């Protein structure tokens, strides 16, 4: 397993996934903070830390569940015609549904952040929280909602990296633990940076659209889908890593240019 974790593909997947997990976790941090701020001051840090730790536990549990489903690669339904062929497995269904969900969720989030960025925050602020246990329940619900796209992103970034699903599961868990650890240690600086540079979060959501599309093509590929004798191929992960790295490089240049203009 150590040999796999030290490969260039695994390291790139880990770095990219950790970055995306942090970007996806920004809203989670904001909503947890809003919920925690309704408590007495001496309980706020405790509620925030508990909330983030619960987010990590929830995501690891979901990773085990989703990884189990993705491992069910034996087709249970076959469709063959003169021009079309398809072999459906639970693996393909999970990847296809996950890809559609990521595309829908990402486009919805981008639209909402552009047109009404305070919508979700106002909704959380409107909920009454009277005790620490009540806050933790609210945080658990928030964590679960934000865990779904996080888990699907992890699956999309690591699926196919190694034939043994346990290896990729370990890689996903490491990325989740690192990202939550960073968020616990640097929650406020990260939140302030994203607030002053909202394009980073929009960029992260745009990456999810790419990952969603990749999951759909991966589902078609694993289903041995054929149109008029032409098989659907999988998209090499290297293309995705390059697109993300190049976009981040442009964003860093843009940030430095804007910083110089302000100074």
Automatic annotation (TrEMBL):
Record-annotated membrane-spanning stretches: 12-35, 47-68, 88-104, 135-155, 167-187, 199-219, 239-257
Keyword terms, alphabetized: Membrane, Transmembrane, Transmembrane helix
Membrane-protein topology: Multi-pass membrane protein
Signal peptide from the UniProt entry: none
Top-rank lineage group of the source organism: Bacteria
Matching Pfam families: TerC
Major subcellular location class: membrane
GO CC terms in record: membrane
Annotated InterPro entries: Integral_membrane_TerC
Subcellular location(s) of the protein: Membrane
Keyword Membrane belongs to the record: yes
Keyword Membrane: yes
Similarity section: Belongs to the TerC family.
Protein name (Swiss-Prot/TrEMBL): TerC family protein
Organism: Psychroserpens burtonensis
